[in-house]
């Protein structure tokens, strides 16, 4: 079910529903583009109309971050769970191994990319890759990368490049790639390769993965999260205040949200 969250489209899907959509796209060879929405991307969209349009044009906008999930619940949207990009990648690689679909990995450094593929093959021995390319190609090499993806006959494409580069790449080429299921995976290749450790499950449930990332890479991450989290909290607080005022004034059509289940 598609809903609007603070002006951004989100799809209220479970992991199982998202996997089924991806499998259906691969079986039918009909293109389906998935975007994982987290707080950083949401905040960047508000100042980058091109990025906002790229996200809105995607077929599925999944709830990747706990902040988005909690915010949606607080505003009364029936969001039941997040679909973390790294978890969705793992689920879909398992589907590929079981059903013979072939993925293409695009992004990361050459060393991390090879490590990620080796880790995927170790976890899923029957997995066969359609192809791969690191994310450090130059602009003049972009058409060569597109042709390589086209000729690979891949069933799914996982892109580990930063925002907004991957969104711009897909906006320019997604109709020419010939790949049914396309998904940006952020830093998931680093996690798969083991070069970045994911937060323990309890920290994930508490929505503190961002704090764990700051602990791992303080020099690179602290300002990013301090900025985006603060801006997101301000936008959400403003929306909650407006919602409360509309309800208090008895605005027509305004229904008070149920329990948000934040933290539950």
Secondary structure topology:
Blueprint: E1 2-5, E2 8-11, H1 15-28, E3 32-37, H2 39-47, H3 49-56, E4 60-63, H4 66-74, H5 85-99, E5 103-107, H6 110-123, E6 131-133, H7 142-152, E7 156-160, H8 165-177, E8 181-184, H9 188-193, H10 201-205, H11 209-216, H12 218-248
Parallel strand pairs: 3-4, 3-8, 5-6, 5-7, 7-8
Antiparallel strand pairs: 1-2
Helix pairs in contact: 1-5, 2-3, 2-12, 11-12
How would you sum up the global shape? globular
Helix/strand-derived category reads: alpha/beta
Report strand %: 5-15%
Roughly how many Å is the radius of gyration? Answer: 19 Å
Arithmetic mean of pLDDT: 91
- Poorly predicted runs are 259-264
One letter per element, helices H and strands E, the order comes to EEHEHHEHHEHEHEHEHHHH
Give an overview of the whole structure.
- This protein is an alpha/beta fold and 264 residues long.
- Helix 8 (165-177) links the parallel strand 7 and strand 8 (181-184).
- The longest helix is centred in the last third of the chain and has 31 residues, at 218-248.
- The protein contains twelve helices and eight strands.
- The protein is globular and about 60 Å long.
């Amino acid at each position: 079910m598609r809903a609007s969250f603070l002006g951004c489209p989100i799809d209220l899907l479970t992991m199982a529903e998202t996997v089924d959509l991806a499998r259906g796209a691969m079986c039918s060879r009909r293109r389906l583009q998935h975007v994982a929405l987290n707080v950083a991307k949401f905040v960047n969209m508000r100042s980058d109309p091109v990025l906002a349009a790229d996200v809105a044009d995607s077929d599925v906008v999944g709830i990747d971050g706990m902040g988005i999930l909690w915010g949606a619940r607080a505003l009364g949207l029936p969001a039941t769970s997040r679909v973390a990009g790294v978890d969705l990648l793992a689920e879909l690689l398992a589907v590929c191994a079981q059903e013979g679909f072939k993925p293409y990995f695009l992004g990361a450094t050459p060393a991390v990319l090879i490590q990620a593929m080796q880790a995927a093959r170790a976890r899923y021995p029957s997995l066969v890759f359609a192809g791969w390319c690191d994310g450090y190609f130059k602009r003049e090499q972009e058409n060569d990368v597109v042709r390589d993806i086209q000729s690979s006959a891949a069933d799914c494409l996982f892109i580990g490049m930063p925002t907004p580069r991957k969104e711009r790449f897909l906006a320019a080429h997604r109709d020419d790639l010939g790949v049914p299921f396309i998904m940006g995976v952020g830093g998931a290749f680093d996690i798969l390769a083991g070069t970045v450790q994911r937060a323990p499950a309890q920290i994930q449930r508490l929505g503190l993965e961002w704090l764990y990332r700051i602990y791992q890479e303080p020099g690179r991450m602290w300002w990013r999260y301090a900025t985006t989290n603060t801006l997101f909290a301000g936008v959400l607080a403003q929306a909650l205040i407006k919602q409360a005022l509309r309800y208090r004034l008895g605005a027509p059509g305004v229904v008070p949200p149920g329990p948000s289940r934040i933290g539950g």
